[in-house]
Amino acid sequence: MTMLTNEERLIKAGIVLPEIPMPAGLYQPAIRAGGMIYTSGQLPLVNGELLNPGGRGCVTNEREHEAINAARVAALNAVAAVRVVAGSLDNISQIVKLTVYVSSADGFTNQHKVANGASEIIGEIFGEEGRHVRSAVGVKSLPLNASIEVDLLVISMDF
Description:
Layout: H1 6-12, E1 30-33, E2 36-39, E3 45-46, E4 49-50, H2 64-86, E5 92-103, H3 111-126, E6 133-139, E7 148-156
Parallel strand pairs: 5-6
Antiparallel strand pairs: 1-2, 2-7, 3-4, 5-7
Pfam family, one: YjgF_endoribonc
Protein name: Endoribonuclease L-PSP
Domain Endoribonuclease L-PSP/chorismate mutase-like: 7-152
């Protein structure tokens, strides 16, 4: 049985990576430092529009499912930024760390479930190389009143 490459898994899953959103400040979406690629925090932007469960950027128990989808979108934006720096997702040998920030309403404690949305899409794309450590962090607010922000740390074979 032939193993699929990261790029082949992406195609087989029907996932189309978005164009990298324009930075909202003075930073790069992703940079290489030695064999590592670091992404800046990526928001759940689709065609320049922010996905915001509840419209206020604050995740509640009632909006958890929508937040999980927003985490997937933000993770795809991070993967797109990685691809630009790496040249190809096939040049990625390991996703090391995923951090998911969740703008949380008072009493919301399911940040880990929201972060699963990002972890699952990473696994779909990278297979075994997508197994990572993770932090799921509840915060009061995020840039642009976003509900979710995601960043990645990956190892690139092409260095």
